[in-house]
Amino acid sequence: MKQVRFWGTRGSLPVALTAAGVRRKVVAALRGASGRSFASDAEIGHYVDSLAFPAAATYGGHTSCVEIETGGPDFMLCDLGSGARPFGLSAMARRAGGAPQTFHVFMSHLHWDHIMGLPFFVPAFIPGNRVVIYGSHLELEAALRRQQEKPSFPVDFSIFGATMEFVHLEPGQPRDVAGVSVTTMLQRHGGDSYGYRFESRGRALVYSTDSEHPLAHAEHTDRFVEFFRDADLVIFDAMYSLADSISVKADWGHSSNVVGVELCQMAGARHLCLFHHEPVFDDDAIEALLAETRRLEEITRVDAPLRISAAYDGLEITL
Ligand SMILES: [Zn+2]
Ligand SMILES: [Zn+2]
After folding, report:
1. Which numbered ligand comes closest to the C-alpha of 8?
2. Quick one: pLDDT band at residue 87, thresholds 50, 70, 90?
3. Angle between helices 19-33 and 41-50 (to 10 degrees)
4. Ligand closest to the CA atom of residue 65
5. Total-model pTM
6. What percent of the chain has pLDDT over 70?
7. In angstroms, what is the span from residue 299 Cα to ligand 1's centroid?
8. Is position 49 within any domain?
9. Total of domains in the chain
10. What is the CATH number of the domain that holds 204?
11. Ligand 1: centre distance to CA 150 (Å)
12. Span of 4-18, 133-147, 174-188, 230-244 with lowest mean pLDDT
């Protein structure tokens, strides 16, 4: 595994920047530039790069879809949220001479925000391509077919020209896929969800979204600490603040940045990536959550530092 690329990072449903939100960013950027002059586009670029992330960029709005670059010819993907649409177009653009492509897709669960990209996933329409969809839910194939049934969608699942395959993964039993060892684990979430641990050539990546962690439950905590053990990167459901996750939103099936830090520290993980952002959070709110999480990590650090990022559509992390 070489790199992870985020195509969809938002929880529950896609969001877009509004006209008012873009305007606020432009006003702030121009205010910061007042009195300065720029001799070239490159100088303007440097100025823009010096701004805080929310001032010049956005965390983005597609729902869960994460690409894992293995270094081999096959594609690997976690979830088919709306981010699967731009991912699919990118994969098409990377197609060497029109050669067929194989996609290995690992599904955390079958809630809409994690499957809604499939009807718009262009590579699935291309004859010769192969799309292999893995998951631990017994309803995996039925749920994806049902999504495209009348009257919910105009184009039936049978329209896909690619070979569509479904593979059931037994939790706890590692399986080799395209040179990567893949293990799933049951997580606490409405209708169940499954976390994934990917290992290859001494690198370990955990994808754990839509997962609630009852703090007082030692056996649960131990299971996750083992699952996250020494991971190079943990992509973690940090949808809520801790206060929300243990009060009004307890049992809503999601977790917080604070629990992410605790589990990663206990597991000796190296990098925590906050993921599945709450749709009501704007860019400033996510930036504040990231700053708060980094501060928490600093004051609770005992061993090696834990790197912390907040995922955004377009983020690439080298493993
Ligand atoms: Zn979700
Ligand atoms: Zn869910």
Report:
1. 1
2. very high
3. 110
4. 1
5. 0.95
6. 96
7. 30
8. no
9. 1
10. 3.60.15.10
11. 24
12. 230-244
